[in-house]
Amino acid sequence: MLNSLPNSEFRQKLIEAYGINAVHDTLATGDWIKTIEWIWNQPTGTALFKDQDDRLFSSFMEPFLIFALKNLDAVLLELESLDVNRDLLEHHWCEELYSKLLNLSIRTLIQELHIARLSGLSNGETSENRYHNYNTVLLKDREYVESILFMYPVLAKLMTDETTKFIEYHTEILTHLHKDMDTLKKEMSIQSHVLERISTGVGDTHSKGRSVSVLYLGNGQRLIYKPRSLSMDIGFEKFTRWFNQWNNKMDFRTPKSIDCGSYGWQSYVQYMECTTEEEVKRYYYRYGGYVALLYILGSRDFHFENIIADGEYPILIDMETLFSNRIASDTSEVWRELFLHEMDRSVFSSMLIPFKRTPEEDSDTSGLGNWGDSNNEMIGEVLQLPYTDEMRLVSQKVKKKPANNKPQLKGELIGFHHYLSEIQAGFKDSYHTIYEHKNEIVGSHGPLHHFKNSKVRMIFRSTNEYGEFLKSSLHPDYLQKLDKRTQLFAHFQRNSVYTPYYAKVVPYEMECMLKQEIPVFTFDMDSDHITIETTESRIELRFPMTGISRVQDRLNCLGKQDFEKQLRYLTMSLTSSLKPQVIQTENSPNCNAQVEDKVNLLRLAQKIGDELIEHAAWDREKQTVIWVDRKPVADEGHYIGILDPTLYDGSLGIVLFMAQLGKETGDSRYSNFAREALQTSVDMITIAQKNNISVFSGLLGYAYTLLQVASIWEDGTYYEEALKYIDQIKEFIQKDQQFDIVGGSAGVIILLARLVAQTSDPRFKMLAIECGEHLLRGVKDLLVSKQGLLNGLSHGLSGFAWAFTELWFITSEEEYRSFAQTLVELERADYSKDHNNWRDKRFKETQEFLSVYWCHGSPGIGLSRLYMAEKVDDPRLVDELEAARTKIITDGLQLPPFLCHGSLGNIDILLSIEKAISRPPDYKSLQELGVEICLKYNSISARDFQLGLMTGVAGLGYGLLRLNNPEIPSVLSLEIPVLGAFTGA
């Protein structure tokens, strides 16, 4: 036995070290203090591992391990008829508890190891020798170890509690196994009842250290123990049996469960490979079926760890969150709450499918994610220089461990990207099966009835977020005083997104996390509230409806419109990891369509308008409307988010299309919709946008849209609103660092020059000059920098040259014209006669002459030459315009139907050229080509594309309206309508 302080002195020092409030903490002055006294006053020196020297800081853990084994051995004596392999069981007990205790203490022990090295406490010639001396001598010295406990009393309590919970939970499992063995032999076909190992911690650790556990039996059989009621699991078994009666192709399968009230047993699901390609297809077909089923039930948290691939069957293994409920957030931003509500009532909410919420997220933990995709790495902690006194934990990228959620064929994990159609087909079949039998589901004897008295886990915050804070709380700084660790967890109170409602759960969250446990909240399915009890209070939060009513409400919303929206969300999710690129369609236009009449164009534009309305999300008052869409992340795929209020690919572009559609068709539905969407877009303006002056993504996007709708709706108030946004840009001009047509001052100058042409208001010219001076400095700096300048319109030389030409035309300042000429000459140097195109500097040699878009390549360059040639007498500009026009006709009309980089954008440019030079094109009419695009588009849906103006279906619709009526202003040319009725000009 180690020498020690007298018990009374040890006890008092530990209480004092734990914190001034510890005398009010029954755990501080009661059970755990007594337990650590027992732990510290027992014989040590027992060899717990054959390779004890290979166990980091094993001497520090030894008293805790011996104490646990002593108590669990006593339990086995009481359960003498329970057949166990004692040696194996004890070995695994030591292994598991050792790992848990090391996780709690390793950061502190490494810090103390370094202090011992620097202070000369540890002896030895080498770094390895000094670590060995530290572990085998210092950590066996009672006085030294007590100094650590007094320095880190929170660690002392955590390790003591962890040991106590380990003993209590294993005692619970052993007792229940002993009691239920006969039932298990019968119901689970247990052939051997010799227990060799209990592996706890398979899932998250909750109340008193309890978690899902695996029991290993002597003949290789395994059994799952869950420390909660399995009524939900049994209910789901019955639900899937009911479903399979109506759709035997789906053939859902579930584990066998035995519910014992407060705990339960479940059959172990073995990960199995598929044997054929057809089995892989059926796996993903069934997976799509689950996406629909769990969407309709309102499920949550079905991440990759909750799914096991059993050959061709995806098996769901945790039903705690099969249902859900939601408390509305308290926010003045109605559109933000609307987005949260829309996602809550969508296929994204179950976590079965990828849902990247921000550009920064780089890990997919959905049921389809984790391993085998493009990113097989994650940030983790790695121990460097182990078994030396210089060891340290560092954060670095580590390989993810393959999970069991993906099918495997011939030893290779098979991801979902080649099975999108199977997932979509499964979703469709499952959705329609439930839709057709929805009345039976809610009937008095229907499958939903089985869940009436079930308890459901409520997810307030992601387990990962809790986990990260728990890991951070094990830093030595947080283990010295209880109040410091408490302050860390108070972060949830200070930064709660869901105040004041969700902030009420923070005291319970903190109480659980101080015990090193993940908080768990549960509610009754037939209740409209959730009750949360802490040691100091009882909190009750109300839901708008019961869990059962919520499912009934979801069933009532099923139908064609909901199906199309959810299928679009599913498609967005499944393609979100693909790199941003132009979506190619199967057949390209070939100008063989027959034009019936111009109504074809309007009909398709209306189809697009109707789909945009169907895919929108409204608040209850039908006053706020938003859209959810894929948003590109450089070259790394997409994330899913609310459409920002921008002209380029956001809600303002949709507003512009819908307003024009209402005017062209005379249908007030589209006009009224545009008005509501415009108001929401105005409400959504962000600080970032206020700092951005650009037309396509900033303040002047509002101005441009308002100028257009002022003319469309013949309402001068919108013109006055547009002027307010124009006035605001003066404050932010110098903050512009993008400079170009799409993101900066160049586009602003072109728009202001168009306003100068229509009105004598001096503000437009003054702002244009200020933007011009800023742009001049910025572009000159770029010319001499390593970054250089691209060719083309949207981000390159043509866009800048056009802007400076417009500025020269309204100011007569020769510097602007001269600089524009310099930029044109630079671009001319990159023209290839062989390719009839300008080099796209974004790409290497094999692709550098392939771009034929408004944004990059000859079409946009040609558009700039068109407007420059109107003002500058330079025959070469006209030659370049003609070259660009020819390139569009030969190579620019067999592209996807988009404005920024597609066939409709190129047709729009041809329309502008035709209008300017009053000469018809030398090929079949542009309207014929537009109709052919219509015919092709009729075979696809808005779910296949983004929604916005420049890169999505709103742009397709706007392009069709332009084909129908070329007098509609071209957004690609930043044209504005005649504003004389508002300007007095």
From TrEMBL:
Membrane: present as a keyword of the record?
Answer: no
Q: Which CDD domains match?
A: LanM-like (cd04792)
Query: Per UniProt, which keywords does this protein have?
Result: Metal-binding, Zinc
Residues annotated as binding Zn(2+) are 855, 900-901
Instruction: Please give the superkingdom of this protein's source.
Output: Bacteria
User: What Gene Ontology molecular function terms does this protein carry?
Assistant: metal ion binding
* Record-level GO cellular component terms: plasma membrane
Instruction: Indicate the segments forming the Lantibiotic biosynthesis protein dehydration domain, all copies.
Output: 152-523
GO BP annotations listed = peptide modification
A Pfam family (short name) is LANC_like
User: Would you tell me the protein name for this molecule?
Assistant: Type 2 lantibiotic biosynthesis protein LanM
